[in-house]
Amino acid sequence: MRIPLVFLFALAAAASQKPAAKVVPSDAKPAEAPKPKPVNETLGFNVNWPSGLSLGEGQITSLQNAGGWSFSMKVEAAIPAFTIAESATSRAGTDLCSLELNKQATRGSKKVDETTKFDASSLMATRQTGSGGGKTEIRINACAKDALTFLQFLRNELIAGRVPSAQPVYYGAPYQTRLQYIGTQRIVSAGESIEVDKLTAFVKGPSSEFTVDLLFARDANRTPVQAQIPVAVGKFTVEFTR
Question: Model-level pTM?
Fold first, then answer.
């Protein structure tokens, strides 16, 4: 099974806008959430084998201004006889509806260079490879989200006490993504015991299907802490540096 690793990093990053599911039971009084701060953030992360050895590293940046949002991600990782170097940038409006996604990558001997433009007025996204390369049109909803934008949207929903409804998330191809809130737990991160929200993402793409466990700190901005990717030999771990 081929799993798009960088898509996982972006998670660890809607066809119809159904009401979002509540994180807390309806009969419970939720604690007042800390007020989030304006976002200008760079998060580094390490990618580790199930054994704990390093596979690679990268970073994700998020910037919010009056005109909307911009995101970027880069990662370099090495598997025996196979090197991955990938970067992506995206832009979204103030409503976190995607406008454009660009990505460039080297995956072993394969080179990737493509742009996806989202047009909410026509409910279409246009995916084009390279300069003058092939073009594909994809039908979208009025507020489609690429993987980098979706990660910020998910964090905003957690701040509000909600989990997003199932929806396609775009990283080139659409990946149908459903999130399940598991609960809160305490973990040790960077030598510190912290409380986190745990969610499981069920993701289905054109040629792969997988799950990812996502852990977010219960701070004002629901900062990502870990993504755990189950595989046959254990779990790959994406650990964010805070």
Answer: 0.83
